[in-house]
Amino acid sequence: MNKRFLLTLGSAILAGLVAPVQAQTSWPAHPIKLIVPYPPGGPVDQLARAIAPRLGEVLGQSIVVDNKAGASGVIGMDATIKAEPDGYTFGFGVPGGITVLPHLQKMPYVVDEINYVSLVARVPQVITVGPKVSVNTLQELVALAKKDPGAMNYGSAGNATTPHLGAELFAQEAGIKMMHVPYKGAAPAITALLSGEIQVLAADLSAVKPFTSRGIKILAVSAPRRNESLPDVPTTAELGLPGVVSESSYGIIAAKGTPQAITQKMHAALVTTLKTPEVVARIATMGAQASSTTPEEYRALMQQESLKWGAVVKKANITLN
To answer: What is this structure's pTM?
Structure first.
């Protein structure tokens, strides 16, 4: 083995070691894809488009929103987790695909291996009725549902999503029975509510708030405290249902195997973005609260929520069949 060969081999090995490090230090070198696992126009899509411009400014590259809807958010999350781990694919982690569906089916990804980056926003759920439903309070809704058990239809953003579980929790606590109609996201569920196809919808406040001018009535906020953007709307606790507490926590996750250095840079950029007054204000108009966390805090929150919703699934005997 001659000296020139050894030098060439050494150079090749060194180049192989240095290249990944250089790629991480120069990241991002081109636009980043942000996968939204729900259709355009829904609450998660709105959150993505609220943070994307400022996040892109902080990182110095464009953030391209890519909607991949279906299977209650699982398709988009699976695409994120299994993407090339080069730091150019991130996505929204949606609670249903982390805290609910794993109790009901075999997942295409391993939940414990999700690469959490940061929480983005907490969104309280609200209980609403469509313009064709002749009730104005939650008590009136409960009374109407009890007159004819099972006659009312309620929608959700998808089977086994947190809005679905939130409505089931409400029905359990109120002692009523309604029929579930799942949709592929909040946007089509709201369309169904407006048309009268369904009568009730438990959904993220950010999804339904823009449609109150078209006749959707928000009867209660599923939270211990009133929402600042809806000071006149009572909470479920005030209305005698303190056990009905439901909020959706959305955050950013990364492709499995994404280098830690890139994950840390994205986390820092998200923290900066979520402190920007304009971004905070825009998220607040949706009835949501901008909220960043460490990756570890985000993971712990999802683990706590998984325990909570797993108990609801078991009590309601919910299945995907």
So the answer is: 0.79
